[in-house]
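Fold this sequence, please.
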Amino acid sequence: MADSPAETPSAPAAPGKSPLVVIMLGLNVALMAGVLACVVMLVRRPAAAQAAPMPAAAAPAAHPVEHEKKEAGGGPTIRLADFVVRLRNTDAERFARISFEIEVSDEKDKEAMTRRQPQVRDSFIAYLSDRSAEELRGSEGLARAKGDLLGRARETAPDAHIANLYIIDFVVQ
């Protein structure tokens, strides 16, 4: 009896029933769950950071012109009030808003720099007013301006040891 059911060749497996397909589907679901979990964590992190109270050491200083910040290896800093300067452009009126912090060595230098703030501001405004938007464009332009302004600050306040100048805000309109 050649036609008995035990001797008939077995039929190929039905599509979708293969173990390889089941494994691939499981890996795909696990990968998608991981991506979704990462997205949810990234979305929640900024919201949690905004809701958390700011530590007292990181709270902004009451005085808007200066405050002290101590970083690893750095000295105290003095924040200068924002500068809004009309730039030298022939084609259109352009303005720059720039904020600086000056790092000094110690409290004695901070006091000396504080006494010279009006002169330093005057020197910075004169320098920035002679610049065009193109001269301040890009990292090279900002680095050149920062170096020139650091030199002017050191000349204007020779009794204060100025360690560095930081540009903390910069907008050209």
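Residues 19-51 form the longest helix (33 residues). The first strand starts at residue 77 and ends at 79.
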